[in-house]
Fold:
Amino acid sequence: MKTIKDKDIYCLIGNPVSKSLSPTIHNSYFELIGENSIYFTFEIKEEKLELILEAFKILNVKGFNVTIPHKITIINYLDEVSEDVKVLGAVNTVRNLNGKLIGFNTDGKGFLKSLEMEKIDVKDKKILVLGAGGAANAISVSLAMEGVKSIIIANRTISKAETLSDRISSYFPKIEVKYDSLKLENVKKKEVDMIVNCTSVGMYPNQTESPIDIEGFQKNLIVYDIIYKPKKTRLLQLAEFKGYKTINGISMLINQGLCSQEIWLGKKDLFFLENFEKIRRILKNYIE
Ligand code: ATR
Structure:
């Protein structure tokens, strides 16, 4: 029998990390594919970040995920970052390749993978992104990379929407990028093909709220809320009532984890639907 000392070590670093579903996703996945590996969580304070990365190299931690508050600052301590991280400015996955720490971001890829699974093609589409934080940043950039026609960033704090919109425009000059407040006063609602909620409105303690007024959109609208708990946010309830197609954040959550696995294990095509479904079933116990 193999003991714990034979296992490859993976982990999540952040603060807080106690509520994260990443250990459940990754440990389940290692078991499903027969990898002799284990995934921990470590609560790491900002001032200890550099030290912990050195420790990971010495301990030969094979890979790790990064969450709030280290997603941006960690870039200063990595040996290399992927091309999309250079655009995004944030890392959520690190691979330790023979003592070299390489940073990636799988949030946007997980989002795109979830669209692919729903057979949604966003090329030449008009997308309304709600929010201008880390998730909105990753998702907007991934949408831009997919060749959408236009992106509107709507956010409570309009200056942040403007900053994100300027950032996307500078990297993707062919895409029409606009910004607005969550009142959407300047948005031509009938032209929007898909809304992606990347704000935390709909999550505890704002479960009864919707980030926007869902009235006035066209009938083929797709409403994607990246929140997975609750699995049906107020926004999705209202959208469903209007007859729009709705998607919640569970698939993105699983897929960004599977994208991290691909990076760590250096393997392609780990997205076997069978494994995805098994993890989804396991997560049900934690989410519903
Ligand atoms: P994440 O990494 O999940 O994107 P974040 O970077 O903290 O988290 O971003 C949170 C997003 O939710 C922001 O767009 C934030 O809007 P502000 O930029 O105005 O802060 C948005 N948000 C959070 N609480 C909100 C609320 N009560 N109403 C509207 N937007 C809210």
In short: The chain is about 35% helix and 20% strand. The chain has a mean pLDDT of 94. The pocket of 2'-monophosphoadenosine-5'-diphosphate is lined by residues 131-136, 155-157, 160, 198-201, 206, 211 (CB under 6 Å).
